[in-house]
Write a structure and sequence with these properties.
Number of strands: 0
Oligomer: single chain
Strand content: under 5%
CATH class: Mainly Alpha
Structural class: mainly alpha
Number of helices: 13
CATH superfamily: MetI-like
Number of domains: 1
Low-confidence stretches: none
CATH topology: MetI-like fold
Length: 261
Amino acid sequence: MGLTLTWLSLIVLIPLAGLFVRSTDLSLDQFWGIVTSRRTLNALRVSFGLAFAAACVNLVMGTIVVWALVRYRFPGRRLFDAIVDVPFALPTAVAGVALTSLFAQKGWLGAPLAALGVKVAFTPLGIFVAMIFIGIPFVVRTVQPVLIDLDPEIEEAAASLGAGRWQIVTRVILPSLTPALLTGFALAFARAVGEYGSVIFIAGNLPNVSEIAPLLIVIRLSEYRYADATAIAVVMLVVAFLIILAVNRLQRWTQSRAPLN
């Protein structure tokens, strides 16, 4: 326990404490003025709002991908299973360049979308797409082992007792998968909130429009406004921690009710 706490303190707790200590260089009025400025609020709104939306999409689409990979046998299944891990291994800058090229107005996907009046690259929609790209493996890899361990015979038993397909999904499958789904959601959200490399290439980085909070922190650091950068970082840390804490509490609650289902 002592070794664990020491290592955790050196790697996590002390750096985070230093972040809060650095923010004390600002008075309360200065801190409040920085975090409530129009540019900061818009950057936080873009980062947290789009990260939450992307995590919700990944929650649904990731579950569908997992179900297909686990419950069906089709040619190329192992290849598709390996492709899921590409966002893990791909450098974020490479992912950003690839997505920008793909969704640019003359790109393979950007051109037909532009013809329909939909612009992806250099807009908040581009940020949303990048966050989905980097977040979906977290849902897939978190839910996959749980679904593998879920015996299909349980579903067959429920069906033999007269349960319909919707009842099997809502009363047999989802209660078993919910803790893993919430964990995957939290991981995808956390990764999306802190993502930088793959987002800045496709975002356009327009202040108050498509500027993410991590980029604003980097800008403030380049301007030698360290206290400002620290204040924004503290807000991101606190909000992200509260959201993840709420998800974890919900996960524990679902786990405690699982035996009753």
